[in-house]
Design a protein that fits this description.
The protein is mostly helical. The protein has 3 domains: 1-66, no CATH class; 68-268; 275-361, Herpes Virus-1 (2-Layer Sandwich). It is built from 12 helices and 4 strands. Helix 1 runs antiparallel to helix 3, helix 6 packs antiparallel against helix 7 and helix 8 (207-236) packs antiparallel against helix 9 (244-273). The longest helix is centred in the last third of the chain and has 50 residues, at 344-393. The protein starts with a helix and ends in a 5-residue tail after the last helix.
Length: 398
Amino acid sequence: MRYAILASASLIVSSIVVTNTYYRKKQFYPTVVYLTNNQPSLSILLFQCVVILFLIVKALTYAFFGRLQRAEVDNLVSQSWYAFFDMCLVFAFFQNELGVEFLFLFAILLFVRAFHWLLEERVDYMERSPVISTLFHLRIMTLITLLTLVDIYFIKTTYWRPASHGISVHLALGIEYFILILSLLSTIVRYILHSIDSMREHSWNKKATYLLYVDIFIGFIRLAVYAEFTFIMWSLHPFPLFIARPIYLSIRSLKKAIRDVLMSRRAIRYMNTVFRDATADDLAASSDTVCIICREEMSLQTDSSSSAATPTLKRLPCSHIFHVACLRSWFQRQQTCPTCRMDVIREARLQETHRQQPQRSATATTQPDNSANSSSSNSTSIPSTAANNQNLHMPWMC
């Protein structure tokens, strides 16, 4: 309701300004010249353009996403504030090129980025939703196609503009759209993987691994693009301060993705080698026989999908029991117990240390025995050697 009131008020004020100007100038061209040169009139018209653009975005949001969830709105608002802060730094860097075209292009960029953020949220929602409708897939595929065309158009436009007019703010816009199409590529891969997983009868254990490798690949390309842009800008201008935060976030995201891959592989290795299999007594002693990850009943059986019979239940050091496949997919995202949040890797290291202590003590006890035996043999051999040497010097003793 408040958006309708705001749009109506803006339309009424802008209509009054245009009508009054045309009534005084009597012709179209003088009216346009006056409106573009008069600052109050130009501000009112620009505000009306922003309101129209906002209403278009509102209609497209309802068409592609329906009613937004509370978490999506909060995430959109927080990311919009960060994007607005970055744009203020861009405004300060390119202050000599500020103009109506400049502000209009950055307003479009902000709205396009908002659609990319909402698309990422909805694709990630597929993993948490048990039922995905056909309308959902139709909306996602249509929006992916539309955003791809928009990104390619602006990349092409902002690429040829710096080539003919020199490096300007259009290059910064081109880099932003190139980063957006990289994130869109990551979203497309996630959508394909989630769709394949939803069509499978059982959970897909390798999906999380593929997602981690996709994050690493996209992170490397994003960091390379930012580094190249920084080198080009720094060679002709002062250091672009507005690019410092995106570079830092790219490095941190890439570092986190690599660390997640290494830690997940370590946690899975500990699960296979250190953590013991759950027995019937463990399952009977457990107060809850439902796997908290997949919400299915747990039972002792062997995995028939593999060539060798492998157990399907694992018992963590905190006595919680889960499916092996569920734990594997869980450890690829975080290395804690799903129930009590115990650090799995730290507990596995402690168990390995406790297992190695008896072996070290046994090795330490065998070493003194061997040294004692060797010393006694040496002590008996030394006198015999001395006696033989004495007989060689005194032959009458023979």
